[in-house]
């Protein structure tokens, strides 16, 4: 994308965010003014702008304590913003339609406008509250995958996790539940398919605690990982150091043989935010060709399911994350439109690889999940 395109995109996003917040702020002010006629407009505007700008201030190079506070407020505001905008639009459209078919009298009574706004606000509070609670939970889902007849039989229990986003709100507290779920499965191998970090290593409050938890993962043949798009940037070397200290074996377009039973491949993500230094994704054909002729099943870790067409019958199983399944409703409508498979198990035909895409074990941006769950995936490969 050229510079003009980038600038144009930034201007469009700023205009949309500003316009949407003006609409939301005005609707809330009208609702509050009905309850409190003496409400000071200037004080309200300053307070509302604080929440609006917190989303931006959290990304600026502020002192750590202030940055943490603004990130916490901004992350929550993002989810609140989404649902306020959605529900205000819905009730306003319904009110408009009601006026057109003369169900609602003209001029419209203020009580109707008040009740419509009340419904939008109550729904937002309900969805956001549930989303915050649900984002603290971690469940386990299971799949059974049978390898092709052309490969040697295998008996391997694989655990798949993705998108921990360490450094994001509540990520370090949730890691304990994730590790407990993994260990309860008693896996043969653990595959972490990217976005271990949330762009910035320094956002992790207790790196030593994270390392201790990660090292406590119990697995017969070890813990392996690949890079996701949020695992790069200025603190990339520190991220690599934490993974090494945590006994996570990172595979960068490399493969390993697990107990002479299967071949595990780890891919480099093609779109790192901030880059992976000198590390770039190699051509898929070259990566798979480096394996050579083998009768062992081939399992690939590739953070994003966007490259689904890159894999052919030489691969048995591809493990991905990235999509979060949209994270909050109706986000899954968009991920389903973008990806061939945005969640769950998929196989085009009997000769094609199996694909399993997880919704992730953590949250990005908003510390909320509505209509989706954090999960640890247990796969019986037979």
Protein described:
Helix 1 (3-35) packs across helix 3 (64-100) and helix 2 crosses helix 3. It is elongated, with a radius of gyration of 24 Å. The longest helix is centred in the N-terminal third of the chain and has 37 residues, at 64-100. Helix 7 (236-245) links the parallel strand 4 and strand 5 (248-250). Strands 1-12-2-3-4-5 form a 6-stranded mixed beta sheet. It is built from 9 helices and 12 strands. It folds into 2 domains: 3-134, no CATH class; 139-381, Purple Acid Phosphatase, chain A, domain 2. The protein is of the alpha/beta class. It has helices at 3-35, 41-57, 64-100, 110-134, 171-185, 207-215, 236-245, 284-289, 331-338, and strands at residues 138-145, 156-161, 189-193, 223-226, 248-250, 254-258, 262-266, 298-301, 317-320, 344-346, 354-357, 374-381.
